[in-house]
């Protein structure tokens, strides 16, 4: 499944970015917004933003967005670290 959004020309023209950067910047913003609202996981949000895990983590930090990290994820990471 794929989705295309229709954004009016007046809105696109109002975005103060070079035309070639608008689509990517909108993907970044959408990824951060959906992640912040817990509608996308970190992995899917970074996939939408077309960034690797490190890049997206840095991007979130620049925006002041805290990463969602549950107790269960911490326990999984600790268990993995102890096996190494």
From TrEMBL:
Signal peptide: none annotated. It holds the Pfam family UPF0175. InterPro entries: UPF0175, UPF0175_domain. Belongs to the UPF0175 family. This is UPF0175 family protein. It comes from Almyronema epifaneia S1.
């Amino acid at each position: 499944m794929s989705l295309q959004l229709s954004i009016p020309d007046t809105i696109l023209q109002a975005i103060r970015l070079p035309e070639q950067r608008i689509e990517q910047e909108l993907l970044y913003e959408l990824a951060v917004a959906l992640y912040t609202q817990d509608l996308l996981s970190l992995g899917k949000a970074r996939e939408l933003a077309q960034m690797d895990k490190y890049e997206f983590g840095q991007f979130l930090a620049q925006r002041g967005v805290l990463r969602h990290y549950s107790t269960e994820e911490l326990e999984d990471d600790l268990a993995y670290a102890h096996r190494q």
